[in-house]
Design brief:
- Helices cover about 65% and strands about 0% of the residues.
- It is globular and about 60 Å long.
- The two termini are about 25 Å apart.
- The relative contact order is 0.17.
Length: about 400
């Protein structure tokens, strides 16, 4: 299933193959103990992993580079696409880890209430606040489109109209919500043995969908859930491999450092703006490369604490990662906000003054995200247990 991860070491035989697929007699970190059914074997809960917030920080900074620089040189390397793909893989990993940890612990109706209410309380208030403020200030077409975004139909609107809307960045949040609606019942109701095949089907759907785009379908179809199923699915596959003792070989594959480095090197190679690259291949492989690399890095971050990348747990990166949801929600609204309500800002559109404009946009985005984090997101996260009625599940926060 994780073809991008599997090829590098496996074709060269010898030590590399044995490192990823050690002999059956070798102990595996997530193998089921002897005599225990591997389907019911569980790894310890994830707990909080600061490196995943560090990875979120890199993802949101990539989105900033895409949206704020207005540089074709920068945009040619698709930093926003790479950042969004990392977000999707993270979401697939964390959501699946949470659901697998609580799959058999409570009735389905109670599990559904807990999951969807937790997601709403984490994402809804800050999102609705941004919609309300944008509508009040009359920016981003929000006075007429508020209900579209509020119902998480932003991506469907873009696909139908075949244009970017004033708050077009909300398409990713719509994809996330559609994923929640689809993945919860599938994961909770499907037999455990079928889950790898369900994920594999999602990967194939995504590749076929994007291949169709590369061969003539509208590129705006890329904002719909089917096109992003491989990123979400790879994250889910990392979680499932970590959780299911039968998939120990896949877990070791994602954890192998040579696979990880090979996947990271493949990102700039496949994302590079090369004129000779066939469109159909580009639409399939360019988005796949950062998703595979993110899956391998996430598995590295979820490994033994002493082996995790320390630089991703730098306090500044971790904090940026923790407020990354607010940064993403607000940043795209900042340019229209300032152009409408800050006289003279159009003077910053020429020459070196563009750097001043860039710094202003980043500063305002961070200020709004900090306000959202401190006054909306954090207080609600502290109180949501009262609404949900049970302690929050382990595994970190997908937002």
């Amino acid at each position: 299933m994780a073809v991008g991860c599997r090829r590098e070491p496996g074709r060269h035989g010898g030590a590399a193959w044995q490192r990823v697929f050690p002999a059956a007699s070798a102990a595996s970190a997530n193998a089921a103990p002897e005599g225990e059914d591997p389907l019911t074997h569980r790894t310890p809960p994830l707990g909080y992993i600061p490196q995943l917030d560090g990875l979120r920080a890199l993802a949101v900074l990539g989105v900033f580079a895409e949206h704020f620089t207005y540089s074709e040189l920068v945009r040619g390397w698709s930093p926003g696409m790479v950042g969004v793909r990392v977000f999707f893989v993270l979401s697939g990993f964390l959501i699946t880890s949470i659901l697998l940890s609580g799959r058999d612990e409570q009735p389905l109706s109670r599990a559904a209430w807990t999951f969807y209410m937790k997601r709403f309380l984490r994402l809804g208030p800050a999102f609705c606040t941004a919609i309300a403020v944008a509508a009040l200030l009359g920016i981003a077409d929000m006075r007429q489109d508020w209900w579209v975004h509020g119902l998480y139909l932003s991506n469907i609107q873009i696909a139908l109209q075949e244009r970017w809307t004033g708050a077009g960045h909300f398409w990713t949040l719509s994809v996330e919500e559609h994923f929640y609606l689809l993945w919860f019942p599938l994961l909770m109701l499907a037999p455990r043995r079928s889950l790898p095949w369900v994920i594999a089907a999602g990967l194939l759907i995504a590749w076929g969908w994007r291949f169709a785009i590369g061969t003539g379908a509208s590129p705006f179809l890329d904002v719909l859930l089917p096109s992003q199923l491989d990123g979400l699915g790879l994250g889910a596959l990392v979680a499932l491999a970590r959780h299911d003792g039968r998939l120990g070989w896949l877990d070791r594959l994602f954890a192998d450092r040579w696979v990880r480095w090979g996947a990271l090197v493949a990102v700039p190679v496949l994302v590079a703006p090369l004129a000779w690259r066939p469109e159909a291949v580009a639409w399939v492989l360019a988005p796949l490369a950062p998703a595979v690399a993110a899956a391998c890095v996430i598995r590295h971050c979820a490994g033994p604490a002493g082996q995790r990348p320390r630089w991703l747990s730098h306090p500044w990166l971790v904090h940026v990662g923790r407020i990354s949801y607010g940064l993403y929600v607000w940043h795209y609204l900042v340019p229209p906000l300032l152009y409408v309500h800050l006289p003279g800002i159009e003077l910053l559109s020429e020459g070196p003054l563009k750097l001043v404009r860039l710094a202003l946009w980043v500063a305002v985005s961070f200020a709004l995200a900090e306000i959202s984090w401190r006054l909306i997101e954090q207080p609600i996260m502290r109180r949501r247990q009262r609404v949900i009625g049970r302690p929050a599940m382990q595994g970190g926060d997908p937002a």
